[in-house]
Amino acid sequence: MSARRARRIRMLRKNIQNINNLIIAITLILITYLVLVVSLGTQFITQEEGGFWEKILGYGLSFLAFVMVVYVTMRLKGITRGLNFDVKKAVVKAETEEDTKYKALIQNSLDVITIIDLQGHIQYQSPSSERILGYLPDELNNQSIFELIHAEDHSILKYALEQKSNTFFFSYRIQHRDGTWLWFESSGTNLLSNSLINGIVLNSRDITDRKKEEEQRKQKELAALKINLEREKTEKEKDAVEREKRIIEEGKAKLEEAYKVIEEKNHEITDSINYAFRIQRAIVPQMEDVMQSLPQAFVLWRPKDIVSGDFYWFADKDRYKLISAADCTGHGVPGAFMTMIGNTILNQIVLQNDHTMPDQILNNLHLGVRKALKQDQAGSQSRDGMDITFVVIDTQDNNKVYFAGANNPMIVVRNGEYTEFTPDKKSIGGLQTETERIFTLQTHDSQPGDVVYIYTDGFQDQFGGDRGRKFMTKRFKELLASIYTKPMEEQREILNTTIEEWMGTQYEQIDDILVIGIRF
To answer: Count of H helices and E strands in the chain?
Structure first.
């Protein structure tokens, strides 16, 4: 109720009280006057000399006066009651008119009035919410106001509620029924102590247009600032370009000269590597010799950098055909040096010292590498070595296969199924913590149609495919099992094409690749 309406009601009630007091005063005066008149008349008539009829007349007048007093009193009370009724009607009418004006004011207000508790639950929502936000007031009752407010603005209202301030101001975004977000500026008043309100009153006004104008103004200011900065930047860039031109012109001759020197050096290095490649090709067994001894075989050898750190070794000695696939430390020129050391030591072990079993060959190869790189001496910093698969085929014993491996396995495919011969988990050369390094001998009784594969880790470690992952060992073994029946040269082409397609144009070869296949 407004202060103006309260003052009007107080004035009406005061007027009623004044009228009541006036009526009571008039009634008392009339009663006193009539009693006095009757008393005087009765005393005069009822003197001793008065007769019977005179006394009757005196008593009658007294009764008539009493009746008149009662009648006047009742009439005055009726008037008073009527006045009270009229005044009450006036009060009710005033209150009704005031309520109508108040409701009209709330309904057409530019503000949304909301009453919430400390947890943010809506206890009252003004009718203006339907026009401004699209929500009927009743459908928001008992709903949390935080469900309507933008998540980024929750903390502002939460902080105000936690502080329990008497008055607070904040801006926030609230969602219209159609899903759009509107900006509101709100003032909150804590009326929890008011028994009629018992809540926190939020008076919120839509400032979306103002926010848009502010944003547009900011954008214009930023645009103007950007133009100025661009202008300054352009001027500075012009100066910088001029300076760079001078520097470039001054340094161009030096760069051209340096490029010539680098090109000459690169040409010399490339020539040296190509020469090293010819040397390496001359040292490793010739494919003609391998194919003459093992006509059902293939060798896929793909160096990463012209020369390779992977190498294969072959010998045909008496009843045995010996072949190996080795992966030396590093690739390129450093790896190529290791291949020469390995090839030389294997020639000595097999061709000069007549060792023909794979385990004996690897035991001696390990000692030879450590001695050649002085790894057996105290304080040696060399950690180079190699991983190798060594296979010996006994042509006089039904092509029985002898195998020993240093970190590299052997795969045998028979009837579409592959069997893996696991190597010893130690390398040739490098750091040795055990007293003596011994490699294990394994055997395989071959059957016609069996295909033996030995290889290094370059193929399965190559990155490629749609997701840039490694080819992986399992996929490599399954590929071997799927092509083992094909002619050996065709198998080589399939493996080579597969790894090229796996790399595509996006990935480069990351390591040397060596795969050898032998069919019985």
So the answer is: 11, 18
